Amino acid sequence: APWCGHCKNLKPEWVKAAAVGSKQLNNGVIAAVDATKEAALSDRFKVKGFPTIKYFKDGEFAFDTPNLRDSKKVIEFMRDPKEPPPAPPPEPAWADVPSEVVHLSEDNFKSQLRSKRHALVMFYAPWCGHCKAAKPEFEIAAEQLKEESRMVLAAVNCVDNPAVCKLYNVKGYPTFKYFKYQKETSGYDGGRKAIDFVNFLKNLEGDSVVLTEQSEPASSQPAAKEQKKVSEAKRKGKEELQSNPGFKKLLQLTDDSHTKLMKTHKHLFVMFHSKGCSECTSVGAVFAEVAQRQEPGLVTLAVCDVDKSPAVAANLLVDSVLSTPTFKYIKDGKPVLNYSGDISANSLQEFINKLKTLSKDEL
C-alpha cells in the first residue's frame, strides 16, 4: 500500500533485487501489486497486512515467503526458493492446561474464594515473560497443596478479566495477592519458587508440615523462622538501599513518567529490577554507589521496577528478558546496548565512561 511505512522501506530493496535481471533470479521475476488499486486481487490471495510477500510458481500461488526485507535475501531466495517451516502452534491458554491452579474470572472470582481460608492469587498477562517463568512453579505448588481443602492457588488472566484486575488495583504483572475467605488481606512479596508459595500458605495456617525444596516433610518451626529471616533481610536490604544517598540520585522510570523523562534525558543507563529478584537489592546498592560518584553529564543513571512499570519494560524490550537485574543503555528513547559485564562499581563506571566518550555516530 502506498501509505505503508514498511513498504516504503522495502521498495528500494525490491528495485535493487529486480535490477540483477531474470537470469540471476533463476529465470524468475520480482513483481509488486498496489493493493489499494487491485482490491479484488488482494482479496483473492487473502492479503491481510502490508507488505505481504508471496511466491508463485508456474503462475500458481505456492506459499508465503519468509521475511525478505533486503535485496540480498530476495536474490538468495529466488535462486533457491524454499518454503519456510510452518509456524509453531499457538501456546494454549493457561486455563486450558490441566493443573491444580484454579483459574478465576469476573463471573466466579468470589464464589471460588468464598470457602477458602487461604488463597494466593496470581494476576497475570499471557504475554508477560516474568509470568511465564512463574507459572510452572505456581503449578508445582498447587499440586503439593491439592489435599489442603482450605487452601488454594488461583490465577486471573488480566487481559480477559480487566474488571477484576482493576478492582484489586493490579498495576503490573505478575502481581500476587493473599485473600482470606474472598477478602483481600495483603500483597505477597516473597520468592517465586514452589517452596516459597507453599511455605507462605502453610505458615499462615500454622501447619506442622512445611515442604522443602525436595518436597520432603520438615518441622514448620525452623522453616517458619527461616522464612521470617529471609523476609526480614529483604525488608532491611530494601530500606537500606532506599536510604542510600546514591539511590536518591537515580532517576525513577515509571509508566507515567518515562515518556517525558526520555525526552529530557537523551542518554540513559538503566537498571531494570523486579520484586522476585534475589540479587536486585545487592546489585542496586552497587549501582547506587556508582550514582553517588557521578557528576552531571551526558549519561543519566536510572532504575525501573518492571513489575510496577510493565509499559516501560515492553517499550524498552525488557519483557522478553526473564532474569533481572538487566542493564540497558537507552538513547533517544530506544534501547541501543545491553550491559553484560561484571556487576562491580568499577566495571559499571568503566562502561559509563565509554558511553560518555563515544561519538554520536558510534552511539
Topology:
Elements: H1 5-18, H2 39-44, E1 54-57, E2 60-64, H3 71-79, E3 102-104, H4 109-113, E4 118-124, H5 129-144, E5 151-157, H6 162-167, E6 175-180, E7 183-187, H7 194-205, E8 209-211, E9 217-219, H8 220-243, H9 245-248, E10 251-252, H10 258-264, E11 267-273, H11 280-293, E12 300-305, H12 310-315, E13 326-331, E14 334-339, H13 345-357
Parallel strand pairs: 3-5, 4-5, 10-12, 11-12
Antiparallel strand pairs: 1-2, 4-6, 6-7, 8-9, 11-13, 13-14
Defining traits:
363 residues, alpha/beta, Glutaredoxin, 3 domains, five-stranded mixed β-sheet, 13 helices
How would you characterize the overall build of this protein?
The protein is an alpha/beta fold. It folds into 3 domains: 75 residues, Glutaredoxin (3-Layer(aba) Sandwich), CATH 3.40.30; 108 residues, Glutaredoxin (3-Layer(aba) Sandwich), CATH 3.40.30; 117 residues, Glutaredoxin (3-Layer(aba) Sandwich). Helix content is 37%, strand content 19%. Strand 4, helix 5 and strand 5 form a beta-alpha-beta unit. Helix 1 crosses helix 3, helix 5 packs across helix 7 and helix 8 packs parallel to helix 11. The radius of gyration is 27 Å and the shape is flat.
